[in-house]
# Entry
Amino acid sequence: MLYNNAIWAGLDMDTDEKVCILPHMANRHGLIAGATGTGKTITLKVLAESFSDMGVPVFLSDVKGDLAGMISPGADSDDMRKRIERFGLATAGFTYRPFPTQFWDIDGKKGMPLRTTVSEFGPTLLSRVLGLTDLQANILTIIFRIADEENLLLLDTKDLRSMVQYVAQNNKKYSAEYGNMTTASLNAILRSVVALETAGGDRFFGEPAIDIRDFFRTDNAGKGMINILDAETTIQSPLIYSTFMLYMLSELFEQMPEVGDLDKPKMVFFFDEAHLLFNGAPKALLDKIEQVVKLIRSKGIGVYFITQNPGDVPDGVLAQLGNKVQHALHAYTPAEEKKIKSAAASFRVNKSFDTAEVLQNLGTGEALISFLDETGKPEMVRRCRVLPPQSKMGPVDDTSRLAAMIASDLSGKYSETIDRDSAYEFFKRLTDEATAEAAKLEAQKQAEKEALEKAKAEEKASRGTRNAVKSVGRSTAGTLGREAGGAIGKTFLGSFGKRVGGNIGAALGRGILDTLFNK
# Structure
């Protein structure tokens, strides 16, 4: 909660002093670390609520489902009454109350769909999600360039799949211009895209794409909107979860203007399970993360990483995290003891206690805290109790969540999927046109074949008729000629003349008929 316009996070266990984050230092980023069950989630809730009260929008991921309770007021209990009395919260304005909350979900089930397009996501992050080799990643970059140069929109996974298939079919043409792209590499990329679709990527990539300006909202009372990404399902695919969160961070970095030092942040981004971002990340990607974290604060964005051990965060990034809340760590092996010593060494020494020893003996809800002072220098580490949240601790029922989703003024903007004319539709038209043209040519060939066969049949039938007529005619002409010739021969030569005259007459009759038919 707020105290003298600062974010009151805890109470010094040795001096009872209030330990606060100064608003103009909140964009210097932060770390919330500690073993499982030590109170990291409560600390995150307290800070998020305080930023909201300050009018600063918040974006955070809800990995376990217990941050959704921010939409409901906290519940009174004996333990809460003791904590309220211990911190003196009753006179400081503490009340159980809800906070303005907007739910998001990549799957679109427990919040408004959170989508982006393939083009906006870009080949670098997409290569990481697809698990491509360096060579395959370079080829994917070329595919994106070809799509851009040929004005083909890559909006969803079917667009990307069609684009890869198109390049593969025209491999010889593009390899001559961009360098060799092996069939094996193109097939590997295609298989990875299909696998991503099967894993749910077809729901993540599409339109309407998220407009990050919709995160920078306040309610009617001027309280910052707390944007909660439901990540219970997404976290089961750690690579997709971490890459998406990095994408969101990159979008904030690329789209937000430089603003320099402000009285308070424009937005605070909480990255839970931050170790997933760095596990197995190539050096080029780690360098990009470090660059984004280092420069994004000048755009008024504060980034707070939540993880178990500070060692989960690379030194280059850890050095940028000025506001630190370290909950208890436990050591059961020499390697874990080394991590505890390293975590303790990252704090400015407090001579009143041994930091490493205290770190192993902190109770739930207790933490070592060091925030930045007025000059931007880390304060001396202090042993503190973290304040309780004002909203409900734990999940909310589906009815309350659904009511909040329906009531959101953004519901109409993101609820319905849009499928614009893009690369997939373009290639489908080409295929359909080619198929139709092929069918047309085949139909023409078939018609011509049938016409030729019909003509041949008619000609054959005509020849048969003519031959039959000719045969009958020749027979008749022969008979008539024989009779006429025989009669003439008999008259002049008797019986012998009849036979000779008949033969001559028959031959003459048939000859005359053949001459007539051949004309």
Q: What stands out?
A: The mean pLDDT is 88. Residues 118-202 form one domain. The chain has three domains: 2-115+214-414, 118-202, 430-517.
